[in-house]
User: Fold these one by one.
Assistant:
Number 1:
Amino acid sequence: MYLKYNIFNDDQNRKVIKMISFIRGILDYVSENYIIVEAGGIGYKIFVSSSVLGRLPQTGKEVKVYTFMSVKEDGISLFGFNSNEELDIFNKLLTVGGVGPKGALAIVSALSPKDIIMAVVTGDVNAVSKAPGVGKKTAQRIILELKDKFKTEDIFAGGEDYTEDIISASVSDDPKYETIEALMSLGYMRAEAVKAVSAVYEKGMEAEELLKKALKKMI
């Protein structure tokens, strides 16, 4: 059986619910917004993001999907993702008032984890509202409620093992953060500095070169 479970207490119902953390099995069927994965003789219907659909193997091949299980009065639904990073962003979106699993999935489908973090850190309402069914008021609420859950360095972090504190306290030695601090000391807003540095940064750049390119970008 290729299932991994987390156990948590449900204070309202006074019972224990098993939440599936991921499913690994044979890809049986692919639809426009969901897949069916056969694991242990059971077919699991999993609603997935567009990034999952874009990276699926052929049907009949093995696939691993990180999952969130939504338990409601009218049924149980599974939502699937490529990585723990994507799932983590999805879970953060669910903490925002008025954003349910389907709405959060739409946002994750429209924007990459890095783009979502960038939009929240820089207050880019228009970027968040690009997701289907997400209006400007909802986008504003998402930014307001998540702004303290992301740091500037999260924009430059990535990989399958993403965690909120993946960057250590020594990031001030990194040219990206040195440049952001330098731009802010020149009077630029944090959001402006982050956008400019993100746009021009290339691996191996020194702070001096990065600052020059960022300044040109901002002029």
Number 2:
Amino acid sequence: MVLRRLDLPNVITVARIVACPVLVVLILSPDPARLALAFLVFVSAALSDLWDGYLARKHGWITDAGKLLDPVADKLLTVSTLVPFYVVSHRPGAVNEIPWWGALPLWVLAVIFGREIVVTLFRGWALRRGSVLSAGPSGKIKAFIQNVFCGSLLLWYVLARMAPEWGWEETLGWIVWSWFHQAVTALTLVVALVLTVYSMGVYYRENRQLLRHQ
């Protein structure tokens, strides 16, 4: 029984990993219903990250497997959303664009994925030397803001496709909401990019002693 409880955060993490390919298929669909389902799946996956972390810290259910699996799940969730976003945003039509950004620039993916690759390689290098490195607070904040961006964009894709069909486009409520929603989506991407670079610097500073004793 104790073992099963100890493994609960890891089970939640694995479920998040399993949800990633489902997300890819749903996000690439132009159907608003499937995009709405993608939004719900993504929110569930993002909240599961907070939940498994909370359980592990509150009850002391922290394992080396969890320290390794959790960052992997976070990275897979990032790939499973940003890559489809890149593909969708380069399709013809304003409805596919990212608010204020247009098509998602390739350099954005390079910055975000470049950071993840560097950190992953460093974790693997440290593991071979007997050190298991977990994600730090700055990395978690970065992941949270990035998830806010992804969730906001998914919801925008749903609402932007529904607005013409439901006759919302000319209403004051939609005009105000669409401006606010687009601003949140665009600005959270900017903040996520800043935190991506910052968190990598913090990660290096906090673990640089490993390099000195290699």
Number 3:
Amino acid sequence: MTIRQELEQMEEQYLSPYAALSARSRGRDRLEEPCDIRTVYQRDRDRIIHCKAFRRMKHKTQVFLAPEGDHYRTRLTHTLEVSQIARTIAKSLRLNEELTEAIALGHDLGHTPFGHSGEDVLNRICPDGFAHYEQSVRVVERLEKNGRGLNLTWEVRDGIRNHRTSGRPSTLEGAVVRLSDKIAYINHDIDDAIRAKMFRESDLPGEYTDVLGHSVRERLNALIHDVIQNSMDRPEIIMSLPMETAMKGLRKWMFENVYCSDIPKAEEAKAKQLIVFLYDYYCRYVERLPEEYRIMMEEQGEKKERVVCDYIAGMSDSYAIDLFEELFVPKAWKI
């Protein structure tokens, strides 16, 4: 018996009857020989961590565009915080921790440079539209490994696609990530906004903080415990009504006072225009795209606009800015 088979037996014996067992995965699009030491979800997690799109997230905006300071969240640090929260909940509920972690680590791989500002403008100018959760699936199915994709299991891809607010994950592990994403970003965005001196902790509405807690630590502790207590031994991932109402209220307050305010949006118009310029340029000069993207059009029949969108969406903030300068900013003449 291999180590993997022993791990699969341990899952059968220990995990909740509502957990997604590795041995019962719906599998991959392309058949592969099983690993002798890792379950299918462990392999998926490892593939995501080692892929290029995962590394690029360290230079992609979470909320604040080009912040001056080392401690503001990026898309990568957000992803790691989601993963940690989701793993804590999954472990407490005896769900499949490896599946939960793989979904969490991959849920934002398709995010654009400049955060949701980049997503909004690509959705507007790309004929087929753009949504980061669908792009995340496209990254793992199509764009990584020079067009071969990562060949992840169905359950991981389902969790990635359905992590959005309106999503309906097919596994409880996916549902844990969907809720953990909100718990993470509401709280770490408050932390970053306070760091940016947009408001103080005492400025948060008392009707919400009296329920959730009066610090990031208290709120995380309260929310995570509430999810665990209300989901234990149940076929669903839920929160108590008072906690859910307070979290939604605080989220709405954050949209009104942070996400849509002038400070994080100070450079938004420039960022959006930069993306429009890059999109128009590469739609006009597709021969200047990197080879892997040209192959997608010439040999695999992908639409020009879709491929240009893929290229831009994969850029980090700094790469997009440097490329814009190279293409559109005149350089000083030298002898």
Number 4:
Amino acid sequence: MRRIVLMVLRLFYIAPWYLFRIWRLSRNERASLEERYAYIKKVTKAANRAGRVKVESYGLENLPGENGYIFYPNHQGMFDVLVFLESCPVPFAFVTKKEARNIILLKQVGDALGSLAIDREDIRQSMQVINAMTDGVKDGKNFLIFAEGTRSKMGNRLLDFKGGSFKAAVRARCPIVPCALIDSFKPFDEKSIRPVTVKLIYLPPMYYEEYKGMKTQEIAAEVKMRIEKTIEEYEKSN
């Protein structure tokens, strides 16, 4: 919370313009997704700098050559999406839980990128979101979804990944990109405004040929294992 206050105070003079501009872009049908994403990325970088957060990304060479894939990272908190928005070179939409849908700025950014809100307590609505993701990926859109369903409150430790989160990938037969977030909980969870570094590692993708014979629960366990292994290797080397 202290860091959010710091961001707001340091960007107080321009934050209203940022918010208004993103809102306008979300309603401008002539603005391309690339234009919207470029501006949101610019705002995100400014916010992260204001909050004294440095984002380091690795493995960008692992991203598939063509759009139409899904990022599956571990989930540590509200800052996770900001990490992706700063580091990811290609536009993407994200799936958020319905409770977070109307948070100021997150709502405007989500609308601009065509993001989706999921109600995990409503099976029918959840399937509608999965179907929308499937159609979007088939049309060449990229998505980000947190397969844990909720954020881990154990630092860099992971919760189990839910198999249902992988149904869209299976139906679209698209690449699955595991992603390891490291220390992304620190900016907003720690009661400090000291400089902090967050890392995002893009792992080699799982293509359909690799997972087509697996159940969604098996895919979920495999993706979780790859992310855990990556975090463990990082922690051992630092």
